[in-house]
Amino acid sequence: MPERPLLVVAGLIRDEAGRVLLTRRPPGKVRAGLWEFPGGKVHPGELPEEALRRELREELGLETRVIRELARIRHAYPDITIELLLFEVEALGSPKGLEKQEIGWFPPETLENTSLCPADRNLWKLLLSKA
User: Fold this and answer.
1) Helices (H), the chain
2) Dist. CA 23–CA 37, nearest whole Å
3) Shortest CA distance to 76 belongs to which of 8, 23, 128?
4) What is the pLDDT of residue 1?
5) Which residues does residue 103 pair with via DSSP β-bridges, in sequence order?
6) What does the pLDDT profile of the chain (131 residues) look like in tens digits?
7) Is 108 helix (H, G, I), strand (E, B) or coil?
8) What is the DSSP letter of 112?
9) Domains of the chain and CATH, by start
């Protein structure tokens, strides 16, 4: 029987200029140095939207409003298979790297040439194909 994928949520957060917020995976973590949409794992019994609000509060000190699900993909990494859900999110405040992670704002047209985690890259491509 195939392994059930780990459910992971991420937020598409834009600033007033339309730039997209990404976080860089810190040294010592799997896929260190790659950029990703901020978010994290869904805990058992937690709704995806609740998990995303919790993760953004813990990692970036952001209170947020989850607007809607934009896309979802399943991605098999060598070490784990994930189901990644991307939500449109409104941030209330400014993000801070509370877990010592680098954060950055990227113009959407530059994401294709940014060192994204493979699942995030595929999610972005899916999102563009729906536009």
Assistant:
1) 48-60, 118-130
2) 6
3) 8
4) 43
5) 23
6) 456 899 999 999 999 999 999 999 988 888 999 999 999 999 999 999 999 999 999 999 999 999 999 999 999 999 999 999 999 999 999 999 888 889 999 999 999 999 999 999 999 999 988 76
7) helix
8) G
9) 6-130 (3.90.79.10)
- Can you tell me the distance from the alpha carbon of 26 to that of 34, in angstroms, rounded to the nearest whole number? 8
Report the pLDDT value the prediction gives residue 54, as an integer from 0 to 100: 97
In angstroms, the CA 33 to CA 83 distance is 21
Reading across the β-sheet that carries 63-76, which strands appear in turn?
Answer: 39-41, 6-13, 81-92, 63-76
Phi, psi (rounded to 5 degrees) for 12:
-95, 105
Whether the Cβ atoms of residue 22 and residue 12 lie closer than 8 Å to each other: no
The reported pTM is 0.93
Given the DSSP bridges, would you call strands 6-13 and 20-24 parallel, antiparallel or unpaired? unpaired
**Would the CA dihedral through 83, 85, 86, 92 be positive or negative?**
negative
20-24 and 35-36 beta bridge pairing: antiparallel
C-alpha closest to that of 35 among 94, 120, 124: 120
Whether residue 58 contacts residue 98, with contact meaning beta carbons closer than 8 Å, is answered with yes
